[in-house]
Amino acid sequence: MIRRVLVLSVIAVSASVPALRAQNAPTEDSLKLAHQAVMSAITSGNPAMLEPVLHRNAIGFFRDGQMIAQVGGGYSTKDAVPAVLADLGRFSMTEYDAVYRVAATSGVVCMGTRFQPKKGEKGQPRYIRSTWVYANLDGAWRLLSWHSSDVPLKK
User: Fold this and answer.
1) What is the pLDDT of residue 118?
2) CATH no. of 27-150
3) Is the N end or the C end of the chain the one with fewer CB atoms within 10 Å?
4) DSSP state, residue 85
C-alpha cells in the first residue's frame, strides 16, 4: 500500500512540473509590455524608467554609431542611458510594424519605425528597422542587445 501511494505521488509530481513551468514561462504579451516600457522611457526621455530594464551586460549599436556600446566593466547602465536617450530623443517615433517572439527565456522584437525629427531638430524623416533582444531574468525582461538600420527604400 505504501509503495502504491509513493508511486502515485511520484507520478502526480512528475505530471505537475511541466504545468508549473508553463504557468511561469515568459510570454509574448509580457515581452510586448516590457518593450513598450522601453519605448516609453526613450520617447519620454526618462532615464529612471529605462535603467532597470537594461541588462547589466547589454551590448548594441546606437543608430549612427560605428562602435559597439557595451555595458559592463567601467561602462554601466547609468552611463548608457543618457547616450540612448540623446540618440533617440531627437525624434518622435511611430511604429508601423512589430513582431514579438519568445523562446524559453529569450525574447526578440523586430520592429519598423518612422523617425520624424522633433520640432527644432534638423534632418529628414527616416524609416528604421530594428531588432531588440531580451533575456528574461527572474521573471523580468532585460534588454540584452539592440541594433537598428535604415530601411532600404525604393527610389
Assistant:
1) 85
2) 3.10.450.50
3) C
4) H
Q: Which amino acid is at 33?
A: L
Closest to 81 (Cα-Cα) out of 91, 93, 89, 73: 89
Torsion over CA: 59, 48, 98, 148 (sign): negative
Q: What integer pLDDT is reported at residue 46 of this predicted model?
A: 78
- Nearest alpha carbon to residue 26 among 98, 100, 103: 103
Of residues 26, 21, 37, the one with CA closest to residue 139: 26
**Bridge-partner residues for 148, per DSSP?**
130
Res 10: pLDDT: 45
Q: Report the phi/psi class of residue 23: left, alpha or beta, with left for phi > 0 and alpha for psi in -120 to 50.
A: alpha
> How much is the average pLDDT of 36-41?
86
Reported as type and span, the H/E element at residue 22 is: helix 2-24
pLDDT at 5 over 60: no
Contact partners, residue 75, CB within 8 Å, separation at least 6:
69
Please give the order of strands across the beta sheet that includes 126-137: 69-70, 54-60, 140-150, 126-137, 106-117, 91-103
* Domain residue spans of the chain: 27-150
